[in-house]
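Q: Is it fine to ask for two folds in a single conversation?
A: Yes, each is treated on its own. Send the first.
Q: Here.
A: Result:
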Amino acid sequence: MLQETNKGPIRPFMGDNPSVQLTIGAPKLREGSETGVTLPAESESEPRDEVKPSLPPNGGSMAWLQVSAAFALYWNTLGLLNGFGAFQTYYEEVLLSHESASAISWIGSVQIFFLMAGGVFFGPLYDLGYARSMLAAGTILVAFGFMMTSISTEYYQIFLAQGLCVGIGTGCLYIPAITLVPAYFTTRRALAMGISTVGSSLGATLYPLMFERLQPQIGFGWTVRAIAFIVLAMCSYAVVVARPRLKPTKTSAPQGLSWNSLKAVAKIAELSDRRYIIQCVAIFFSNVAFFEPLYYLQSYAQSHGMEGQDLANYLLVILNAIAIPGRIIPSYIADRIGVLNTYIGICAFTAVTVFYWISVNNRAGNIAFSVLYGFFSGSVVTLAPVVLASITDDLSILGTRLGFVAVLKGIGSLIGPPIAGAILGATNSYLGVQLFTGLAISLTAVFAGYLRVVIARHNGQGKRERSESESEPNNESNKE
């Protein structure tokens, strides 16, 4: 017969002699259980399901909806800003003909700078759970900026509306664009990112064509308003379907740290990680080099084998169109052979392509360069954040990491074209521009290769430490 007690363990009664009573270890009472009723308590060593982070689904309707949202955001951030050349030409020839080309180009440069460098503010905000607010604010700012541009007639008005307002708005949209997808995929992460970044190539291809076709027919104002309505519709779709998978890191900060200071943010996001720093340097040099061919492709072709040919004006469209398969095919390969290995090879091929540009002096050569550079440079842009995600152990801090590297991207994008322009003005030759661009992208390949060496050494050291820790118990047992 068993006796129950609410003050101690359950003891089977074996008679009056206490020496024959057996004590059975009773389980702990759960909080809230009835008195006298013992329930098995959860082991403290066993992880609870509610606090255990779930694995990425690596597919499914929700994951691919995030790819579609990122596609729309890329279309209206990088795609929109990379098509600024159409506005540059119109401003130089018509609306702002009294301003210098250098002054007009600052409108586009400021847009790119805020798109990239704004990540230092928007990255931590994303990780703190403000993704939906950022998307809504960015949509409103970009649409409002283009509406104000449509009624602007002075340089300062266009600079404020298109340069500052649109630039800050795209900065709000860009961090969610590059952060939404990685958290939903594992083995297909590079392919998913490649598909989403196709939006930037399509935007950069179709927005200039739209401007060139509509502006003579309906005027500058309504053409820009039409662009604003497209931005509003596509970004509103992204606001509706975007669902960041990981919870905000507000509660996961190390003990004694918060998100209230830059030093604390840097520690929480592990910005001093050696792998992260090396990849940041590689991305910086790729952005220093990226825009020079886009800026000087047409002018170089018009003076090297394509004088007076209308096709020269469509080389940039060809480049952006070829970037579409350039973003998908290498991403598919990266999921098979490794994203960092693919990134190193793509950077090397991009550098070779830029050096090939030096020898181009006819129509076929200019078209070939547009195709090759469009294909490989698109992959450089696509794979860089995927590499960063692959070396980030905790994806809940990925937004902050991408935000801080975006500052370097903004600086590189801001200083690269002016340096190339200064070289061109001083030498009156494109050779210096081509060598400068080729050297910068070559340094990207070098630092990416160095990152591979660092990761290999780190993995090798980890294996040695594990083998040593496993051999110690065996040695102790042998001594005994």
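Q: Second one now.
A: Result:
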Amino acid sequence: MDSFSSSPSTGSQPQFSSEQFKDQLKTQLAQAYAEEFLETIRVKCFDKCITKPGSSLSGSESSCVSRCVDRYIEATGIISRTLFSAPH
């Protein structure tokens, strides 16, 4: 039996309440979203800003990456606020 079932199990796995399960799921989803968000920013900003990969960034590349990340975070915030404040 799995650790989320309502029946007692004979194994040594802990039983989770419905609230604990929801909290754990929310935490894991938030972590997965954060990882995906950072990877997306990394790929998009790298592709846009780094023209000649090397051991260090030029001033213009560094500035471009900074602006790219700032814009991406700002746009994501605007989209999130719009989606979550929209009437259902």
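Q: Anything structural to flag on that second result?
A: Two points. DSSP finds two helices and no strands in the chain. The chain has a mean pLDDT of 84.
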